[in-house]
Structures are given as C-alpha cells and as structure tokens.
Amino acid sequence: MKAIEFTKSMKILSMSYDKDLTQETIELWYQHFKNIKKPIFEKAVQEAIITKKYMPSIYELLEICNKKQSELKLSVLNEMENKGYFKTAKEYEKAVKWLENGITPDWLLKDMQSNYLEMNRKLIGN
After folding, report:
1. pLDDT in the model for residue 59
2. What is the domain extent for residue 70?
3. pTM higher than the cut 0.85
4. Euclidean distance between CA atoms 37 and 26, whole angstroms
5. What is each CA distance from 68 to 18, 25, 63, 91, in whole angstroms?
6. pLDDT over 60 (residue 125)
7. Which secondary structure element, helix H or strand E, spans residue 5, and what is its range?
8. Contact assessment for residue 41 and residue 9, using Cβ atoms and an 8 Å cutoff
C-alpha cells in the first residue's frame, strides 16, 4: 500500500475517534501496515470504526487485517468450490484447513489469485 493511501485511511480512523495523529505516529504505524493491501486495510479500518469503542492499537488493527485477509481467501475458495475446482469435498476441506493454519501451497495460491481476478472482473462488469 502506498503511503498516501495509508495516510488517507488513517485520517478517517483518527477523525472517527476524534484523535489527532502526528506525522511521526502515522509514519510509525505505516511501517507495520505498508505490506497490507489497500482494500484489506480499508475494510479493517471500517470494521474497527463500527466495532471498537476506542481507537485500536497497531496490534488490534493488524488482527483485523489478518481476519479480513482470511475472509477474502475463504470467499475465493468458496467460489472455486462452487465452480467445481475441487474434485471432492475432502479436497475443499483440506484447502480450508490450510487456510486456517496459514499454509497455502504456491500452486493453490496461484489458482486462488486467478479466480480472485476473475471474481473481480465479474463484479465490475468486464
């Protein structure tokens, strides 16, 4: 994620909690979130705003980002299951287990990325 995209989301977060963040604070937080994809971070910020009474810590927001990433991967696996990618229910269950344990073989990750791109094309009408 680009620093400008991160800063925009952080401003939304800080305004939602009526907190002033210094440039140094934003830079510190960015070091922890720079490798998070923009859509995941934006969804995590929105979830934090509606579920947290107080502004989340770096740790709490990272936890939400990880949850959002897992939800995205699971939705891709579900779409792949619906399209008949898995030959048996056991194959699908194994893929879900890998996901839950943070293990995604490269070959499956490549297929998931391909299916994710296809899902996005359908959503935007291309």
Report:
1. 97
2. 3-124
3. no
4. 17
5. 25, 24, 9, 23
6. no
7. helix 3-16
8. yes
Helix (H, G, I), strand (E, B) or coil at 39: helix
| CB of 16 closer than 8 Å to CB of 44 | no
Closest CA to 74 of 119, 123, 34: 119
What is the C-alpha separation between 8 and 123, in angstroms, rounded?
25
Using one digit for the tens of pLDDT, what is the confidence trace for 24-42? 999 999 999 999 999 999 9
Six-digit token string for 121: 């094309």
In order of 50, 60, 87, 116, the CA distances from 78 in angstroms are: 26, 27, 13, 11
Total number of domains constituting the chain: 1
Count of CB atoms within 10 A of residue 52's CB? Answer: 16
